[in-house]
Specification:
With 276 residues, this protein is mainly beta. It has 1 helix and 22 strands. β1 and β2 form a beta hairpin. The two termini are 30 Å apart.
Length: 276
């Protein structure tokens, strides 16, 4: 049994749509707008009793102001270059938290269990973070090196029988922050994420990256400290998805928005998922 919702865009008459969740409550994307012209829009959604709202994501148009926003890049985004052995995994994660199940961001993750597997992302910004779906129920460890330009940081992620979350029976945790840096000078940077060691089949799981841009719009990336028109410019060929939490890179013409959250009643997304 699905859940009906009503949507009005820019003051137009409301239309009816629906979503279905076979095992509520769970974390899912439960609405996506049709493609809209590049510009300002107002979306009103009603009849959402029993549904929780977690975040709203907006795919930026060519001239959407991005200064001060946060952009999210899905693991499927072509701006992330994978090397070595990676597996693209779909399907729901299982969590000890409520809701107990859900979809990762973008409905998939990339996972690596072989030493030397790497993912490289080049961006113009002042901060960057890496998020995962972390498995606290799998005994084992991974060592991951994060190389930001010429500075390396190595992190150990270890789950043992004495780990508090393992002892408490935790399963998988979505939106787990693996690593971040917020002291980056404005301009172009390259982040390389490399699995350097693993034990007992533990995997490096990449769900999405988040960064703060140092450019004003999706059309023009500004190299420099302020995004105020100083510095050289470069054409932007990637997408940009902005969240209101804020949390993803852009389309130069009609753009969709989406809302993600958890369903408390019988409620699977009727429309297609957002892709940056």
């Amino acid at each position: 049994m699905g859940t009906d919702i009503y949507v009005s865009i820019d003051g137009a008459a409301a239309y009816q749509t629906w979503y279905n969740d076979p095992s509520p409550p769970s974390v899912i994307q439960w609405y996506q707008s049709p493609k809209l012209s590049d510009g300002q829009h107002t979306i009103v959604i009603t009849h959402i009793a029993g549904t929780s709202v977690d975040m709203m994501m907006i795919t930026a148009g060519a001239n959407t102001p991005l200064s001060g926003q946060t952009l999210i890049v899905d693991d499927d985004d072509p701006s992330i270059v994978y090397s070595g052995s990676w597996m693209r995994k779909t399907g729901r994660y299982k969590s000890s938290d409520t809701p107990h199940t859900g979809e990762p961001y973008g409905n998939a993750t990339h996972q690596a269990t072989s030493n030397g597997a790497s993912a490289t992302f080049t961006f113009f910004g002042t901060s960057v973070s890496v998020y995962s779906v972390f498995d606290d129920s799998h005994l084992g460890s991974t060592t991951v090196t994060f190389l930001l330009d010429s500075t390396a940081s190595t992190q150990l992620y270890d789950v043992t029988s004495d780990s508090p979350l393992y002892k408490e029976g935790y399963l998988q945790r979505a939106n787990t922050l693996l690593w971040s840096s917020d002291t980056i000078s404005a301009g172009e940077h390259t982040l390389k994420i490399e699995l350097t060691s693993t034990s007992n089949g533990a995997a490096l799981v990449l769900d999405y990256l988040v960064y703060t841009p140092s450019f004003n719009t999706s059309t023009t990336k500004l190299q420099g400290s302020s995004g105020n028109g100083q510095g050289s410019s470069q054409s932007d060929t990637s997408g940009a998805t902005v969240t209101t939490t804020p949390l993803p890179g852009g389309s130069s013409s009609p753009v969709p928005s989406s809302i993600a959250g958890s369903s408390q009643n019988n409620s699977q997304l009727h429309t297609s998922p957002v892709r940056p």
